[in-house]
Amino acid sequence: MATPPLAASGMAPGPFAGPQAPQATREVNTASLCRIGQETVQDIVYRTMEIFQLLRNMQLPNGVTYHTGTYQDRLAKLQDHLRQLSILFRKLRLVYDKCNENCGGMDPIPIEKLKQKNQQLKQIMDQLRNLIWDINAMLAMRN
Q: Annotated region Disordered: where (predicted)?
């Protein structure tokens, strides 16, 4: 995700810098990164659940004969899921690092201030809900 600066790549900036030039100057929205991070975490949870499902269904070699083909298939699936899980964790780390980079100069908002803002937004939403309800009631009385 993070592309090296053009100076570090040894290429001069300009129209002939190559296919990496548009990506190097493009800014990524932090909110979009957070959404991507959330989706990645959901994928990680889903993959982890699949891994536990595969492990639960695998029989341990406790003297019982089992089909080596079935065992090999399940083992291959498990290894594939673990590989994909590793990729997802690397992707999440990149997103996390980019978010930290984008928010480096920002001061964190105190929790109390966030709670106050949330309460204000809740009150505004309640007022709007009541206003819409009143308008609907008035329209129903006209008909």
A: 1-24
Please give the residue range of the domain that contains residue 82. Answer: 30-59+67-141
Secondary structure class of 45 (helix, strand, coil): helix
Q: Determine if the pTM surpasses 0.85.
A: no
Q: Express each pLDDT in 50-64 by its tens digit.
A: 999 888 877 666 666
25 domain residue, yes or no: no
CB 45 within 8 A of CB 81: no
Q: Tokens standing for 33?
A: 């990164």
CA gap 49, 30 in Å, rounded: 29
**How many CA atoms lie within 13 Å of 76's alpha carbon, on the beta-carbon side?**
6
Question: Which residue, chain included where needed, has tokens 């709007």?
Answer: 128
